[in-house]
Design brief:
By secondary structure, this protein is mainly α. The protein has 22 helices and 3 strands. It has a 3-stranded mixed beta sheet with strand order 1-3-2, with helices on both faces. Helix 1 crosses helix 3. The chain is globular.
Length: 495
């Protein structure tokens, strides 16, 4: 190891510690902090965020990266060192464009607005949230102005979550999805799933959810499950992965939400140990990361072989609610297509239509063809147009998500891209593990998670999103067709 590389790694390890500490503060805010802590937490996040940013954009890191160019070129493209230098160079050049003060302002505003949003949603009061929402959009517009973009000021925002993809690229994928999904929704039979629309004891749900999570391939001492207003997963190291879920008044959604977060957890847990404490410990894009949460939530967690193993234990856990419900009835209910106002309750088909709406709206606000104050009306019209759903109130409409409150504008498309990518990777998995269904029927998930860890999770952020997809599937393109074929087959099986 050259002295320059050692120095670079030392600097990056410290920055990584600061970033994980920022994540810890956010996790704690969303899981245990009393509402009274909002102001102090916003200040702490802003201070730590500014410090982290100032350290990262320091000129010394640029000099080290420049001096390491010949070394980088002497190495294999996907070696740890070459990847570190290459990926950090792009991160550094991007981060240099944003003033540290703006970074701090975003963290502070996002933290404060989250507190306002929780109250506004609880009281169905959009007007109360509007000033914070306007400020967040304004901060993101100022961020976009730090970059040159060709198609839309939305592209620099998108790049934070889905590197190298432009607004035009996303719109092209969504233009294929929109009519195809609408057609599947129109033709799918309506299923009576009302037996799930009753209360299920939260403590028994939690035990069952933890039981499922304990089978996916996470080391026992490396994860925990908590509750939060909006389920999420974060990690402070590959051996300290935090998932949250949420228990609703009715239904068993917490089980699938836990499987979903387990997919994120497996990704964080599966990153190669050699990438720990570097900016490569993560995933190349949120779309790829989401492809794995969708894999575990839906491709595994709604499949017939999976439930042929788990349905009896579930019936034994909830004998009053499910004792008389047959396996086929249960399978139809958890795979049905049913438009709803809430993204968090959406099925696999309608889900991406919720995302397309959010993408359209946030993009229009960035492009200044829509004002934040007009979002509720545009939201309700879009829900009617895309899903034929009447939005009952803003709490179940424009206020339902945390993302705009947390200043994560540009994040939404990654969910639908994740759906699409999950099927591209799943086709390869199926070929690699021919008896996968038998394994799922036996409740055996370790070969699957091991394959995904070795083939995908362990790479971390070494390659770009399309290089990563190409390494797995042989083609770099994001292709919606396998996803659509999967949904059509599922809808046909319901009929
Ligand atoms: Zn997710």
């Amino acid at each position: 190891v050259t002295p320059d590389l050692r120095r670079l790694r030392e600097r990056l390890a410290e920055i990584s510690d600061l970033r994980r500490t920022l994540l810890l503060l956010s996790w704690e805010q969303r899981v245990t902090m009393p509402p009274g802590g909002t102001e102090a937490r916003a200040n702490a996040l802003a201070t730590l965020g500014r410090t982290e940013h100032e350290r990262f954009v320091d000129a010394e890191i640029g000099h080290l990266l420049e001096r390491l160019r010949p070394y980088e070129e002497s190495l294999e493209y996907d070696s740890d060192d070459a990847s570190l230098i290459r990926v950090v160079r792009r991160d550094w050049e991007k981060a240099r464009r944003e003033p540290s003060e703006l970074r701090a302002e975003r963290l502070r505003a996002g933290s404060l607005a989250h507190g306002v949003w929780v109250e506004a949603r609880a009281t169905n009061d959009f007007a109360r949230f509007l000033p914070a929402l306007e400020r967040n959009f304004d901060i993101r517009k100022r961020y976009a102005a730090c970059f040159e973009w060709e198609d839309s000021p939305y592209t620099p925002l998108l790049d934070d979550f889905e590197p190298f993809m432009t607004t035009t690229d996303v719109a092209a994928v969504f233009d294929v999805l929109r009519p195809a999904l609408a057609e599947i929704v129109r033709n799918a039979p309506r299923i009576d799933a009302s037996f799930l629309d009753v209360p299920f004891a939260h403590d028994r749900q939690r035990v069952f959810a933890e039981r499922l999570a304990s089978t996916v391939g996470l080391d026992e001492d490396a994860w925990r499950l908590d509750t939060s207003a909006h389920p999420f997963c974060t990690s402070f190291s590959r051996r300290d992965v935090r998932m949250t879920t949420r228990f609703m008044d009715t239904g068993l959604r917490a089980l699938w939400s836990t499987l979903h977060e387990s997919g994120h957890a497996l990704y964080a847990h599966g990153v190669a140990p050699s990438l720990e404490r570097t900016p490569l410990a993560g995933s190349p894009s949120l779309g790829l990361n989401e492809s794995q949460s969708r894999t575990w939530e839906n491709l595994v967690g709604r499949s017939r072989p999976f439930w042929s193993h788990w349905y009896e234990p579930l019936q034994r856990t909830f004998p009053d609610e499910l004792g008389d419900v047959g396996f086929e009835t249960f399978m139809s209910a958890v795979n049905c297509v049913q438009p709803t106002a809430l993204r968090g309750r959406a099925d696999e088909t309608t889900y991406s239509l919720h995302i397309i709406l959010r993408f359209d709206l946030e993009r229009r606000v960035l492009e200044e063809t829509l004002e934040p104050r007009d979002l509720p009306q545009a939201w309700n019209e879009g829900m009617q147009e895309l899903l034929g759903v009447e939005v009952p109130d803003d709490a179940q409409g424009v206020l339902q998500d945390t993302h705009w409150a947390s200043c994560q504008i540009g994040y939404f498309p990654t969910y639908a891209l994740g759906n699409v990518i999950s099927l591209q990777i799943w086709s390869v998995v199926r070929e690699a593990i021919p008896d996968l269904d038998d394994q799922l029927e036996a409740g055996e998930l370790l070969e699957l998670s091991g394959w995904l860890r070795d083939g995908l999770y362990s790479l971390g952020r070494k390659l770009t999103p399309s290089e990563t997809i190409e390494r797995l599937t042989g083609s770099p393109a994001i292709d919606p067709q396998p996803f659509l074929a999967y949904l059509r087959a599922k809808a046909a099986a319901l009929a």
